[in-house]
Amino acid sequence: MKVGVIGCGGMGTTHYLSMKALSDEMDLEVVALADCRPEFLERAMEKFPNAKGYSSGNELIENEALDIVHICLPSNLHVSHAVAAMEKGMNVFIEKPVCLTEAEGEQLLETEKKTGVKAMVGQVVRSTPEYRYLKKLYDDKTYGTLKSIVMQRVSGRVKWGFDNWFHDENRSGSVVLDLHVHDLDFLRYMLGEPKSFDVKASAYKNGMINQIITSYEFQDTFAVVEGIWDESPALKFRPGFRACFEDATLVFDGLENPSLTIYKTNGEIENPEVESDYAGEGNLAGINISDLGPYYTEIKYFAECVRDGKPSEIAPLSEGVKSVEWAIREWKAAKKYVAQRQ
Protein backbone atom coordinates (compact mmCIF):
# COMPACT_ATOMS: atom_id res chain seq x y z
CA MET A 1 0.00 0.00 0.00
CA LYS A 2 1.24 3.46 -0.91
CA VAL A 3 0.85 6.09 1.82
CA GLY A 4 1.33 9.84 1.99
CA VAL A 5 1.69 12.14 4.99
CA ILE A 6 0.58 15.77 4.82
CA GLY A 7 2.11 17.76 7.66
CA CYS A 8 5.45 16.65 9.09
CA GLY A 9 5.39 18.61 12.35
CA GLY A 10 4.70 17.22 15.81
CA MET A 11 1.78 14.91 15.05
CA GLY A 12 2.92 14.14 11.52
CA THR A 13 6.27 12.97 12.90
CA THR A 14 4.44 10.66 15.30
CA HIS A 15 2.53 9.23 12.35
CA TYR A 16 5.45 8.67 10.01
CA LEU A 17 7.64 7.16 12.73
CA SER A 18 4.81 4.74 13.51
CA MET A 19 4.52 3.84 9.83
CA LYS A 20 8.28 3.39 9.58
CA ALA A 21 8.01 0.73 12.27
CA LEU A 22 4.85 -0.73 10.76
CA SER A 23 6.45 -1.14 7.32
CA ASP A 24 8.59 -3.94 8.78
CA GLU A 25 5.52 -6.15 9.18
CA MET A 26 3.06 -4.90 6.54
CA ASP A 27 3.15 -4.14 2.84
CA LEU A 28 3.06 -0.42 3.53
CA GLU A 29 5.36 2.25 2.16
CA VAL A 30 5.43 6.01 2.72
CA VAL A 31 5.98 7.32 -0.81
CA ALA A 32 5.00 10.99 -0.46
CA LEU A 33 5.49 13.69 2.19
CA ALA A 34 4.36 17.30 2.33
CA ASP A 35 5.20 20.26 4.55
CA CYS A 36 5.55 23.97 3.82
CA ARG A 37 8.64 24.16 6.06
CA PRO A 38 11.73 22.83 4.25
CA GLU A 39 13.49 21.76 7.45
CA PHE A 40 10.58 19.59 8.58
CA LEU A 41 10.17 18.07 5.13
CA GLU A 42 13.90 17.32 4.89
CA ARG A 43 13.89 15.67 8.31
CA ALA A 44 10.98 13.45 7.30
CA MET A 45 12.59 12.53 3.98
CA GLU A 46 15.70 11.35 5.82
CA LYS A 47 13.49 8.53 7.14
CA PHE A 48 12.05 7.83 3.66
CA PRO A 49 14.76 8.70 1.12
CA ASN A 50 12.77 7.25 -1.77
CA ALA A 51 9.67 9.32 -1.02
CA LYS A 52 8.63 12.34 -3.07
CA GLY A 53 8.57 15.66 -1.23
CA TYR A 54 6.03 18.45 -1.70
CA SER A 55 5.78 21.94 -0.27
CA SER A 56 1.99 21.73 0.08
CA GLY A 57 -0.61 19.10 0.80
CA ASN A 58 -2.71 20.10 -2.18
CA GLU A 59 0.26 19.55 -4.49
CA LEU A 60 0.75 16.07 -3.03
CA ILE A 61 -2.93 15.19 -3.53
CA GLU A 62 -2.93 16.47 -7.11
CA ASN A 63 0.18 14.55 -8.16
CA GLU A 64 -0.03 11.26 -6.28
CA ALA A 65 -2.14 8.10 -6.53
CA LEU A 66 -2.22 6.80 -2.96
CA ASP A 67 -4.03 4.10 -1.05
CA ILE A 68 -3.99 6.17 2.15
CA VAL A 69 -3.15 9.74 3.04
CA HIS A 70 -2.61 10.93 6.61
CA ILE A 71 -3.69 14.50 7.27
CA CYS A 72 -1.68 15.93 10.19
CA LEU A 73 -2.17 19.65 9.63
CA PRO A 74 -3.49 22.45 11.87
CA SER A 75 -7.11 21.60 12.61
CA ASN A 76 -8.63 24.31 10.40
CA LEU A 77 -6.98 22.70 7.35
CA HIS A 78 -8.26 19.16 7.92
CA VAL A 79 -11.49 19.36 5.97
CA SER A 80 -10.28 20.97 2.74
CA HIS A 81 -7.46 18.46 2.39
CA ALA A 82 -9.56 15.47 3.41
CA VAL A 83 -12.29 16.34 0.90
CA ALA A 84 -9.76 16.82 -1.91
CA ALA A 85 -8.10 13.49 -1.11
CA MET A 86 -11.39 11.58 -0.85
CA GLU A 87 -12.62 13.04 -4.13
CA LYS A 88 -9.48 11.67 -5.74
CA GLY A 89 -10.25 8.22 -4.37
CA MET A 90 -7.79 8.19 -1.48
CA ASN A 91 -8.63 6.66 1.89
CA VAL A 92 -7.95 9.21 4.60
CA PHE A 93 -6.72 9.13 8.16
CA ILE A 94 -7.54 12.54 9.68
CA GLU A 95 -6.10 13.77 12.94
CA LYS A 96 -8.50 15.02 15.58
CA PRO A 97 -10.44 17.19 15.83
CA VAL A 98 -11.65 16.04 12.45
CA CYS A 99 -13.29 19.44 11.88
CA LEU A 100 -14.17 22.66 13.73
CA THR A 101 -17.79 23.29 12.72
CA GLU A 102 -20.99 21.33 12.20
CA ALA A 103 -21.08 22.36 8.55
CA GLU A 104 -17.61 20.96 7.99
CA GLY A 105 -18.67 17.70 9.59
CA GLU A 106 -21.62 17.42 7.23
CA GLN A 107 -19.35 18.11 4.26
CA LEU A 108 -16.98 15.33 5.31
CA LEU A 109 -19.77 12.80 5.78
CA GLU A 110 -21.35 13.69 2.45
CA THR A 111 -18.00 13.30 0.68
CA GLU A 112 -17.33 9.97 2.36
CA LYS A 113 -20.74 8.69 1.24
CA LYS A 114 -20.33 10.04 -2.31
CA THR A 115 -16.83 8.69 -2.89
CA GLY A 116 -17.09 5.39 -1.00
CA VAL A 117 -13.59 5.69 0.44
CA LYS A 118 -12.68 4.76 3.99
CA ALA A 119 -12.02 7.45 6.59
CA MET A 120 -10.79 7.21 10.18
CA VAL A 121 -10.20 9.87 12.81
CA GLY A 122 -7.19 9.99 15.14
CA GLN A 123 -9.13 9.66 18.38
CA VAL A 124 -6.11 7.82 19.74
CA VAL A 125 -7.46 7.29 23.27
CA ARG A 126 -9.72 4.57 21.85
CA SER A 127 -6.49 2.70 21.01
CA THR A 128 -4.59 3.48 24.23
CA PRO A 129 -3.98 0.35 26.39
CA GLU A 130 -5.08 1.79 29.75
CA TYR A 131 -8.35 3.07 28.32
CA ARG A 132 -8.95 -0.16 26.43
CA TYR A 133 -8.49 -1.97 29.74
CA LEU A 134 -11.03 0.31 31.41
CA LYS A 135 -13.56 -0.28 28.63
CA LYS A 136 -13.14 -4.05 28.94
CA LEU A 137 -13.81 -3.88 32.70
CA TYR A 138 -16.90 -1.81 31.94
CA ASP A 139 -18.18 -4.05 29.14
CA ASP A 140 -17.55 -7.27 31.08
CA LYS A 141 -18.89 -5.82 34.37
CA THR A 142 -15.81 -7.34 36.02
CA TYR A 143 -16.29 -5.18 39.12
CA GLY A 144 -19.97 -4.45 38.69
CA THR A 145 -21.55 -1.24 37.47
CA LEU A 146 -19.42 1.85 36.86
CA LYS A 147 -20.86 4.40 39.29
CA SER A 148 -18.65 7.38 38.47
CA ILE A 149 -15.53 8.42 36.63
CA VAL A 150 -13.27 11.46 36.97
CA MET A 151 -10.93 12.12 34.04
CA GLN A 152 -8.16 14.65 33.49
CA ARG A 153 -6.04 15.65 30.54
CA VAL A 154 -3.52 18.20 31.81
CA SER A 155 -0.93 19.96 29.68
CA GLY A 156 1.32 22.97 29.95
CA ARG A 157 0.82 25.91 27.63
CA VAL A 158 1.43 24.63 24.10
CA LYS A 159 4.61 26.15 22.65
CA TRP A 160 4.96 24.01 19.54
CA GLY A 161 2.85 24.26 16.41
CA PHE A 162 3.37 26.06 13.11
CA ASP A 163 2.76 29.81 13.35
CA ASN A 164 1.46 29.42 16.93
CA TRP A 165 -1.77 27.96 15.55
CA PHE A 166 -2.82 26.32 18.83
CA HIS A 167 -3.37 29.76 20.36
CA ASP A 168 -5.75 30.87 17.61
CA GLU A 169 -9.15 29.37 18.46
CA ASN A 170 -10.27 29.70 14.85
CA ARG A 171 -7.52 27.28 13.89
CA SER A 172 -7.39 24.95 16.92
CA GLY A 173 -10.84 25.14 18.50
CA SER A 174 -9.11 25.94 21.81
CA VAL A 175 -8.35 23.37 24.49
CA VAL A 176 -11.94 22.12 24.14
CA LEU A 177 -11.66 20.71 20.61
CA ASP A 178 -7.94 19.98 20.67
CA LEU A 179 -7.37 18.29 24.05
CA HIS A 180 -10.62 17.83 25.97
CA VAL A 181 -12.26 16.16 22.96
CA HIS A 182 -10.17 13.05 23.65
CA ASP A 183 -11.88 12.27 26.96
CA LEU A 184 -15.29 13.36 25.68
CA ASP A 185 -14.90 11.02 22.73
CA PHE A 186 -13.82 8.11 24.92
CA LEU A 187 -16.76 8.58 27.27
CA ARG A 188 -19.13 8.44 24.29
CA TYR A 189 -17.31 5.34 23.04
CA MET A 190 -17.72 3.56 26.37
CA LEU A 191 -20.97 4.95 27.80
CA GLY A 192 -22.99 6.22 24.85
CA GLU A 193 -24.42 9.71 24.50
CA PRO A 194 -24.66 11.92 27.62
CA LYS A 195 -28.14 12.68 28.92
CA SER A 196 -26.97 16.13 30.05
CA PHE A 197 -23.85 18.14 30.83
CA ASP A 198 -22.75 21.23 32.76
CA VAL A 199 -19.65 23.33 32.05
CA LYS A 200 -17.25 25.48 34.07
CA ALA A 201 -14.31 27.13 32.33
CA SER A 202 -11.49 29.67 32.41
CA ALA A 203 -9.66 31.52 29.65
CA TYR A 204 -6.31 33.03 28.78
CA LYS A 205 -6.03 36.82 28.78
CA ASN A 206 -6.76 36.84 25.04
CA GLY A 207 -10.15 35.26 25.76
CA MET A 208 -9.43 31.77 24.41
CA ILE A 209 -10.71 28.96 26.62
CA ASN A 210 -7.74 27.19 28.20
CA GLN A 211 -9.51 25.13 30.88
CA ILE A 212 -12.82 23.31 30.85
CA ILE A 213 -14.41 21.17 33.54
CA THR A 214 -17.52 19.34 32.38
CA SER A 215 -19.82 17.13 34.42
CA TYR A 216 -21.96 14.63 32.53
CA GLU A 217 -24.93 12.44 33.36
CA PHE A 218 -25.07 9.12 31.55
CA GLN A 219 -27.58 6.31 32.01
CA ASP A 220 -25.98 4.71 35.09
CA THR A 221 -22.83 6.81 35.50
CA PHE A 222 -21.85 10.38 36.18
CA ALA A 223 -18.54 11.77 34.94
CA VAL A 224 -16.40 14.83 35.63
CA VAL A 225 -13.75 15.70 33.05
CA GLU A 226 -11.07 18.40 33.09
CA GLY A 227 -8.99 19.52 30.13
CA ILE A 228 -6.43 22.29 30.58
CA TRP A 229 -3.61 24.07 28.82
CA ASP A 230 -1.96 25.56 31.88
CA GLU A 231 -0.53 29.08 31.99
CA SER A 232 2.95 27.58 32.39
CA PRO A 233 4.58 25.64 29.53
CA ALA A 234 6.61 23.69 32.12
CA LEU A 235 3.70 21.54 33.34
CA LYS A 236 4.14 17.98 32.09
CA PHE A 237 1.42 16.32 30.07
CA ARG A 238 -0.60 14.12 32.41
CA PRO A 239 -3.59 12.05 31.35
CA GLY A 240 -5.48 10.19 34.04
CA PHE A 241 -8.74 8.85 35.40
CA ARG A 242 -10.35 7.39 38.51
CA ALA A 243 -13.13 4.95 37.68
CA CYS A 244 -15.29 3.91 40.63
CA PHE A 245 -17.02 0.58 40.08
CA GLU A 246 -19.26 -1.17 42.61
CA ASP A 247 -16.51 -3.57 43.70
CA ALA A 248 -13.26 -1.76 42.88
CA THR A 249 -11.73 1.53 41.81
CA LEU A 250 -9.36 1.71 38.85
CA VAL A 251 -6.85 4.59 38.85
CA PHE A 252 -4.71 5.61 35.87
CA ASP A 253 -1.87 8.13 36.16
CA GLY A 254 0.03 8.72 32.96
CA LEU A 255 3.16 9.88 34.78
CA GLU A 256 3.45 6.84 37.04
CA ASN A 257 4.95 3.41 36.37
CA PRO A 258 3.02 1.19 36.73
CA SER A 259 0.33 3.51 35.45
CA LEU A 260 -2.72 1.45 36.49
CA THR A 261 -3.80 0.50 40.01
CA ILE A 262 -6.90 -1.39 41.14
CA TYR A 263 -8.15 -0.76 44.67
CA LYS A 264 -10.55 -3.57 45.61
CA THR A 265 -13.29 -3.38 48.22
CA ASN A 266 -11.59 -6.12 50.25
CA GLY A 267 -8.53 -3.92 50.64
CA GLU A 268 -6.37 -5.66 48.06
CA ILE A 269 -4.30 -3.56 45.66
CA GLU A 270 -3.32 -4.77 42.20
CA ASN A 271 -1.29 -3.32 39.35
CA PRO A 272 -2.65 -4.90 36.16
CA GLU A 273 -0.26 -5.19 33.24
CA VAL A 274 -1.40 -3.79 29.93
CA GLU A 275 0.57 -4.47 26.80
CA SER A 276 1.18 -2.05 23.98
CA ASP A 277 1.33 -3.27 20.38
CA TYR A 278 4.56 -1.31 19.95
CA ALA A 279 7.04 -0.14 22.57
CA GLY A 280 8.88 2.48 20.54
CA GLU A 281 9.24 6.14 21.44
CA GLY A 282 9.43 9.17 19.21
CA ASN A 283 11.07 12.11 20.96
CA LEU A 284 11.87 13.47 17.51
CA ALA A 285 8.29 14.77 17.33
CA GLY A 286 9.06 17.63 19.73
CA ILE A 287 5.65 17.47 21.42
CA ASN A 288 4.57 16.37 24.89
CA ILE A 289 3.97 12.75 23.80
CA SER A 290 6.78 10.29 23.09
CA ASP A 291 5.01 6.90 23.35
CA LEU A 292 4.24 5.78 19.82
CA GLY A 293 2.34 2.65 20.90
CA PRO A 294 -1.27 3.88 20.66
CA TYR A 295 -0.56 5.69 17.37
CA TYR A 296 1.01 2.55 15.94
CA THR A 297 -2.11 0.61 16.99
CA GLU A 298 -4.63 2.94 15.36
CA ILE A 299 -2.57 3.39 12.19
CA LYS A 300 -2.08 -0.37 11.83
CA TYR A 301 -5.80 -0.95 12.35
CA PHE A 302 -6.78 1.50 9.61
CA ALA A 303 -4.19 0.09 7.21
CA GLU A 304 -5.66 -3.39 7.81
CA CYS A 305 -9.16 -2.05 7.15
CA VAL A 306 -8.03 -0.62 3.81
CA ARG A 307 -6.05 -3.75 2.90
CA ASP A 308 -8.87 -6.15 3.80
CA GLY A 309 -11.75 -4.01 2.53
CA LYS A 310 -13.47 -3.93 5.92
CA PRO A 311 -15.16 -0.94 7.59
CA SER A 312 -13.30 1.16 10.15
CA GLU A 313 -15.28 0.58 13.34
CA ILE A 314 -12.99 1.79 16.15
CA ALA A 315 -12.93 5.49 15.26
CA PRO A 316 -14.96 6.02 12.08
CA LEU A 317 -15.53 9.42 10.55
CA SER A 318 -19.10 9.56 11.84
CA GLU A 319 -17.87 9.17 15.42
CA GLY A 320 -15.21 11.85 15.01
CA VAL A 321 -17.83 14.26 13.68
CA LYS A 322 -20.26 13.43 16.50
CA SER A 323 -17.61 14.09 19.16
CA VAL A 324 -16.84 17.45 17.55
CA GLU A 325 -20.55 18.33 17.61
CA TRP A 326 -20.68 17.60 21.36
CA ALA A 327 -17.43 19.51 21.92
CA ILE A 328 -18.80 22.55 20.09
CA ARG A 329 -21.78 22.61 22.46
CA GLU A 330 -19.40 22.54 25.40
CA TRP A 331 -17.18 25.18 23.80
CA LYS A 332 -20.15 27.52 23.43
CA ALA A 333 -21.18 26.84 27.04
CA ALA A 334 -17.62 27.52 28.20
CA LYS A 335 -17.51 30.87 26.42
CA LYS A 336 -20.86 31.81 27.92
CA TYR A 337 -19.69 30.84 31.39
CA VAL A 338 -16.49 32.91 31.12
CA ALA A 339 -18.38 35.91 29.73
CA GLN A 340 -20.87 35.85 32.60
CA ARG A 341 -18.06 35.91 35.18
CA GLN A 342 -16.34 38.96 33.70
From TrEMBL:
PANTHER family to which the protein is assigned, alphabetical: BCDNA.GH03377 (PTHR43818:SF11)
Superkingdom: Bacteria
Organism ancestry: Bacteria, Bacillati, Bacillota, Clostridia, Lachnospirales
Pfam families in alphabetical order: GFO_IDH_MocA, GFO_IDH_MocA_C3
Keyword tags: Oxidoreductase
Domain GFO/IDH/MocA-like oxidoreductase: 131-224
Name of protein: Gfo/Idh/MocA family oxidoreductase
Keyword Oxidoreductase assigned: yes
Domain Gfo/Idh/MocA-like oxidoreductase N-terminal: 1-122
Organism: Enterocloster alcoholdehydrogenati
